[in-house]
Amino acid sequence: MSWPYDSMQLKVMDDNMLKVAVGEQGPQEEAGRLAKQEDILFKDVLSLQLDFQNILHIDNLWQFENLQKLQLNNNIIERIEGLENLTHLVWLDLSFNNIEAIEGLDTLVNLEDLSLSNNRISKIDSLDALVKLQVLSLGNNQIGNIMNVIYLRQFTCLQTLSLAGNPIAEAEDYKMFIYAYLPDLVYLDFRHIDEQAAKVAKIKHQYNIDELKHREAQMQAQLEDEQGQREKLAEHKLAFIEHLDGSFLFESLYAEDMEGNKLSYLPGVGEFLEAYKDKFVIICLNIFEYGLKQQEKRKIELDTFNECMQEAILENQEQGKLKVAKFEERHLQCLNAIREETELSNIEKKLIECSDDINELFNMLMMLEMQLVEQLEETINMFERNITDLVGLFVENVQSLMAQCRDLENHHHEKVLETAINYLEKILKGEMDKDLPDDVRALFVDKDTIVNAVGASHDIHLLKIDNREDELVTGINSWCTHLVDKIHKDEIMRNRKRVKEITQYIGHMQSELDNLECGDIID
Amino acid sequence: MEVLREKVEEEEAAEREEAAEQAEHAEKMERMVRLAEVSKEERILTQDELRDLEKKMMAVEIPIPAERPIINKAIIDVSKLPPSYTTNSPKEEHLLQVADNFSRQYSHLCPDRVPLFLYPLNECEVPKFVSTTLRPTLMPYPELYNWDSCAQFVSDFLTMVPLLDPLKPPLYLYSSTTVLKRQKGNCFDFSTLLCSMLIGSGYDAYCVNGYGSLDLCLMDLTREVCPLTVKAKEVVKKKEKVSPKKYAVKPPRDLTSRFEQEQEDKRQQEIQALEKKRLREEEEHLLEAEKSKPDPLHGLRVHSWVLVLAGKREVPECFFIDPLTARSYSTKDDHFLGIESLWNHRNYWVNMQDCWNCCKDLVFDLGDPVRWEYMLLGSDKPYLSLTEDYDEGMDNDDDVEYLGKEDEDKSFDMPPSWVAQIEITPEEFETRCPNGKKVIQYKRAQVEKWAPYLNNNGLVCRLTTYEDLQCTKGLEIKEWYQNREDMLELRHINRTTGLHVDYFKPGHPQALQVHSYKSMLPEMDRVMEFYEMAREDGLIKREETPMTMTEYYGGRSDFLSYRHINFGPRIKKLTQNSAESNPRPMVKITERFSRNPEKPADEDVAERVFLITEERIQLRYHCRDDYITASKREFLRRTEVDSKGNKINMTPDMCISFEVEPMEHTKKLLYQYKTMIHLKNEEKLSRHQAWESELEVLEILKLREEEEAAHTLTISIYDTKRNEKSKEYREAMERVLHEEHLQQVETQLDYLAPFLAQLSPGEKLTRWQAVRLKDECLSDFKQRLIDKANLIQARFEKETQELQKKQQWYQENQVTLSPEDEDLYLSYCSQAMFRIRILEQRLNRHKEMAPLKYLALEEKLYKDPRLVEFLKVFV
């Protein structure tokens, strides 16, 4: 690789360079002194300026997690890289570099202002992640295709765009084109867009834009449609009855069932199959509807439970807050009294009073918390019982419905077997139809073969039904156990957090009092 | 018919003798009954005693003035009234006959009852039937569409004159137009006017002639509670009992003794019962004191009021309106002691029900002929209730009469009202009360009302409440204002505490809503409430005491909701510089903020206290969602002695903090330093704001004083009568119009008119005459032009001469002139020069214009349609 610049000037973005830059750009005077004393962490830096440094590679920036503004202009950067961690970046300046393609910006979702002017970019793309983009500067680049601008239509916040100095800007229609295709734009090439001109442009390109809009709307609608379907499916999955609202299960019975498919060619079997399918689908729909209803019930149950829990906790919190507020008021008075007191014995007496107060507060808060724990425990247990009952009932009913499915299958199996045997007899008697495919005819060799075939089909069907049932039952059971576990765990976490908070607060109060004691004794 | 009437008359004649005796007896009996009523409380009297009493009563009877004073006649100009007032139409005559007949039959049938009030005299001494005196009128003011506002208007507009004889209906009943003109009337005039208005606006209203209590008849409200003092009853909101949810937690076990609780409750109840009893006794005592002395004429005082029946205008049930006070009463009210008769514009009904129990048992079913005897059959009967059982036996004797009446009256309808259209001018409507002022006495209260714009401070109503019944010790005063420029609406003065509360409508320049104060001096107790939406800083309320100031804010972008400032005692300044104000030093500023949802709770300050003298700043943060304790931080700035502004040597002991959830970055000195610098600036700002608040209070007080002194009133731009500006504008417009009109007349001036007038009328113009006419006209015009020129010339010369004279005089006396004379001379010169110049200009202009004008006239004459055909040849 041949360096286009004198290698003497080249600098590497290393820790030292960054430290110097941070130090220089950080707080000054007293604050600077403090900063130096404490060392600035890179992750606390919000803004960084690295211009005119002859940097070739962007590097070592991963620590600047909270960086919001980064200036890397007037360097000799060739590739945009190493910015993946800077997700809080709002302002990025990469102008006056040697960048040829836009890349590596996929994680910068908060970026609002991007400057890439005076580079060698020839195509606008890879900006999809930048949904908040407001200002985009691409002046003095090598963008040559005016249609490339249409790519920018997706950025609804984009207000300012500069493209001057590109080959496309020399086109006669350049401005009109952009006015028309980016109607939300306010500034183009650092000039305010005249409303009149925008109107004219819009009329000029009316036809194309309408077409474009139509396409976009179609895409949008399709996306929404898919989204809706996905959501519906997710909802059904939550109720553990996905794909039961139709013939999906029935079709899956025959999906891997070679023999069954072959047998359906037999005269009469087709009719059986139709009847069987209808009945089967009806049962499936029953399960589906029942499942949805049960899901709704469970949801209501859970919601009321959560609501009640929340209410109880909030009420308890309010009580706690009140106690703390009262205590603080009294405590403050006490402290003031101590400060004003001169006699040592009185001070000590008051100090003891204070410390008693603190202890009392501690006891009170802990008692409140214990009370709440007891109350919640009881409620949680009740909920657990109810939800398990609900789930049990659901499983039971679904199983009985599934049993109906199995009965249907058995019934169908018998019929098919009978037909098949009859048919076999016919074949053996020589009264055979010519229109049977060869592979089907292969089954009708002897009785065992045909019985086996029908039996295999039957087994597959039963297996499928069993699998579906198992899936449902395990799904709902695991959901139930998970839920209950989570509730218990949350409650324990909550309790721990509160106890920790109380002890911490009491500890603080106590230590404050102790400090006061020391101070007073010293005085 | 004739036969029937004769028959009736015969019967009457036969019964007359009997009746005379009976009547005498009945009269006695009735008197006795009434006397018994009066002395009901005492005991049952013996016959002798009754006679004695009767005699006494006869002696006691109030001396009745001879007749209605004739002064009224002077006021009412009878001659200007329309003829319907002074004469009766044939139909009315007929009606009067019918009424007379009815009256006679009535007195025959019910000899023990007082004669009916049927056709009193009107202001022109002409008997008029009462129903025709009602003139249903719908007023053009939307305010007068409902009964309450109508009644209020009538009660406000007229002044009550008591009946001459409180025991008899008046001899005269004036038309409503006259009553309105005089703004005076008795209860019959009141109810006639009110009834006319109510019927006009669609109510089923009736005038009632009956008996009322003393208070009612004399419009004495001193035993009534003033409606303005009655506080609206607070609607007690019933708390919806929320059914306990399925998973609601059980309350913690109650460990207190139930028995003890019960005992305590019992004790409390006893105490309460005692208290209640005491209160009740007191109340009774008070009531006793308030009770009026029994009225010796109770039940005999004649009164007239208005009855509104249910049905029309969505009136749910019948009620009375007392037109004197505009109050509505239920038909069962104690004040109304009996009804003789009632009428509307269509018919007249006599009450046949017994009034022993006041009006409480009366049934207002006017279609029931047993209860209400009607006079005209042809009119509509509002409620003919068929369920009433008709007592055949009793009515057998009267059948004949009924028949006769029916036959006679069936074809007869009430003639139209003789009263002219009732009109109320907008001025009268606005002024309302006679002379715009009215005073009403209530129980322990006095209400004064004024018309708007009558008082130059905008006062329209004043309510004074008193502690005692005699109205000597004032309790509080409420004053209502209207149309004030400072938007003052109501002033409430509490006499005992000296507290003034001013209420403002939206629109005060300082967005003031309520201002309560004891004195207008600054730094005293006061509360100001504001329309916070109208203020930039969102201030809702500011409370002041001598040492503190508390402000409440709402809807601010910095979430400030409360600021409390403690002041210290003033420090005496050594340099006595009076120009510089000496503000009270601030000791402590407490500010509270509501939660800013965009910040995490740990960084969102809930309260900050600047202890200015101690140089300490305390911060308390908002509580996190699941926590019960909040972070706190306290900064000490003791070490900030450095004179170089911000240079503080930050040390860890300057900041004491308690954090609910210890965080890394807040431990750093840099963070603390930054926070402190920020707080220092904030402190400065807060102090500045507090200082500005103080200034604002002073400003508001000053403004209030100015407004109070000026008390200008606003005048709506639609008020053409009062709005001077619009009046001027209108007059100017009229003037312009007038001038334009004049100009137009001028342009149409006929030049030939004087010359044509010389010719004898009707004569046809000959050509010769036409030519002569033209020449004459032109020469005349020429002469005028020359005259004008001469006139201007003469004036010009005169001015010039005078000027020259003056100049000469000046030059002669130049030396001896005083400076004033010189000034006078100079000003004269300049004025004279100006006049001369103008005259010169006019002359020149005239010279230029004269030929043109002459030519223009000539051309005009050629084109004149009268001359054109004769002069055509010449052209």
Automatic annotation (TrEMBL), chain B:
Pfam families: CEPT76_peptidase (PF24656), DRC7_C (PF24671), MORN_DRC7 (PF24667). One of its GO terms (biological process) is sperm axoneme assembly. It comes from the Eukaryota. Its main location: cytoplasm. Residues 434-716 form the Dynein regulatory complex subunit 7 MORN domain. Residues 1-27 are annotated as: Disordered. It is found in: Cytoplasm, Cytoskeleton, Flagellum axoneme. InterPro entries: CEPT76/DRC7_peptidase-like_dom (IPR056290), DRC7/lobo (IPR033551), DRC7_C (IPR056292), MORN_DRC7 (IPR056291), Papain-like_cys_pep_sf (IPR038765). The keyword Coiled coil applies. Residues 16-27 have a biased composition (Basic and acidic residues). Keywords: Cell projection, Cilium, Coiled coil, Cytoplasm, Cytoskeleton, Differentiation, Flagellum, Spermatogenesis. Residues 302-375 form the CEP76/DRC7 peptidase-like domain. Residues 763-870 form the Dynein regulatory complex subunit 7 C-terminal domain. GO terms for cellular component: cytoplasm; motile cilium. Belongs to the DRC7 family. Component of the nexin-dynein regulatory complex (N-DRC). Interacts with TCTE1/DRC5. Interacts with DRC3 and GAS8/DRC4. This is Dynein regulatory complex subunit 7. It comes from Nannospalax galili.
